[in-house]
Amino acid sequence: MSKKQGIMICGHGSRDKDAEREFGLVAKGLKLRYPDIPVEYGFLEFSAPNIHMGLNSLINQGVEEIFAVPGMLFAATHAKNDIPSVLTTFEDKQPNLNVTYGRELGLQDDMIEAFQARIYESMGLDPQNPPENLYDTLLVVVGRGTSDTQANAEAAKLTRIVNENMGFGWADTVYSGVTYPSVGVGLENLMKLGYKRIVVAPYFLFTGRLIKRIAGYVDKVAQANPSIEFIQTPYLSDHSKVIDAFQNRVEEIMSGELPAGEESLMHSFKRRLAAGDVDIHHHHAEFVDPQDDTQGESKSDHEHAHDHSHSHQHGHEHSHDHSADQTHSHSHDHNHSHAESHSHSHGVYQHIGHPMGPRTMIGEGICCCFMGQFTDEILEEEKSKIDGDCTKTAFAHLK
Questions:
Q1: Is the pLDDT confidence value at 360 over 60?
Q2: Which of 116, 261, 384, 390 is the most buried (most CB within 10 A)?
Q3: DSSP readout, 225-292?
């Protein structure tokens, strides 16, 4: 007798309720593709349901074999480490359960076509009948930006593919996260090329604080440069081609077939776990109440509950001191108290001090975990941007 199967979509989570709701649209789209198979979704952090809740729901429906796919564009830390950590821990506690973990969405043809369709639509063009070229237009692709070099490279690769497919006059990549160039200085430099029409296309699945920050910055730049036409492309959302891409990943793990020489994310995780390169941790499986929509953690972040009913405490100490003799001190400390050890980190980024990178976002709501990576020298140089509280959220350059 074959085991009952179920599908689990694993997302990161967001303090933005709109992003949380939109993620559910993917699950809805996949349910239409698999009407006879239970489909659930869950988040690593900030949002409900968390991944444990989704997995428990599948088990309660009699599922014994789960096909889990990361709802992420590229394979950075969350897809490589955090999700397989949660899935492995959960599977170990369920003797009759088998969990298979698929690949990130990646640069599938379906994802590229969905992105191009969004760009054409934002320009008022028919994706099914596109112009021969767009030589008079500059394309600026906004990637998420991580401490993972390969994930950043995939965003740059996407830009080149789309540029050649659509025939833009020029195209380049900027990033909203930890790498460089940041959206602000990147766009300012690209405007020097002299194009009178610029398309800014964020390669994101859903809305969220970063999407709104990007839009806020582009609006400000557009107002300051009325001679340039700025076109903002909407994020991917549940475009039919995006659902196709998710389905492709599900079919891939159902069949057990990976491209020749391709290592699965779960195999990679377990190999690195055995070598001691990564640790099992449980923080990301927990639901954090997102009522306070701030960049840092608030009181409501600590007073949350989830299906394991255990407490989580996460303390921050973050101080800045400026005095007349120009000395500067910076402290950033994370104190955790938890029955099971874990860590919260975005990864150490070697170019944290790049002049076009994260330092350009200091004072604009950059994550405290990144602030902790800046040297005292960098903070001294950028002290005019620091307001002493990195927990506040603000649109880029809108203060």
A1: yes
A2: 390
A3: -TTSEEEEPPP-TT-HHHHHHHHHHHHHHHHT---TTPPPHHHHHHHHHHTTSS----GGGS----SS
